[in-house]
Amino acid sequence: MCSNALAMICNMTDTDIANEMKLSGTANNRKLIEDNGEWPEWLSAGDRRLLQSSTVTPNVVVAADGSGNFKTVSEAVANAGEGSKRYVIRIKAGVYRENVEVPKKKTNIMFMGDGRSNTIITGSRNVQDGSTTFHSATVAAVGEKFLART
């Protein structure tokens, strides 16, 4: 049954998906800013302040050209300590072709880019290659700042 359900979803067109979203009234149940302009309940007050702040000092900088502390986002994540202290990774403009994995023990990691059209992280995993979304993370974004959630 799972195989059949996945096959049906894969065959849905963009129009079908858009129509379904209109019928359900929402495109995503975990939006960072609700329709009424308020922050969602699951976002802590500290995270709200951090996302609204115009000055966030990164712990490390990732730059594909080598001008930062690391050349890949995965290296920066690996450098993060385990625990609950906020770890801010600034990712300079560029295209990063990598599958970034944030282990469960690496908590409170914040990615900060140079804008969604300038800082791009792209991977190449898919169901046909054996990857699933079961252990994948969600990245919630506001402007140039991202909170990794596992």
UniProtKB/TrEMBL annotation:
Protein name as catalogued: Pectinesterase
Pectinesterase catalytic domain residues: 59-149
Record bears the keyword Chaperone: no
Swiss-Prot/TrEMBL catalytic activity: [(1->4)-alpha-D-galacturonosyl methyl ester](n) + n H2O = [(1->4)-alpha-D-galacturonosyl](n) + n methanol + n H(+)
PROSITE patterns per UniProt: PECTINESTERASE_1
SUPFAM superfamilies associated with the record: Pectin lyase-like
Record InterPro entries: Pectin_lyas_fold, Pectin_lyase_fold/virulence, Pectinesterase_cat, Pectinesterase_Tyr_AS
Highest taxon of source: Eukaryota
Compartmental location: Secreted, Cell wall
Main function: Acts in the modification of cell walls via demethylesterification of cell wall pectin.
Top enzyme class: hydrolase
EC number: 3.1.1.11
Lineage, highest ranks first: Eukaryota, Viridiplantae, Streptophyta, Embryophyta, Tracheophyta
Entries under Pfam families matching the protein: Pectinesterase
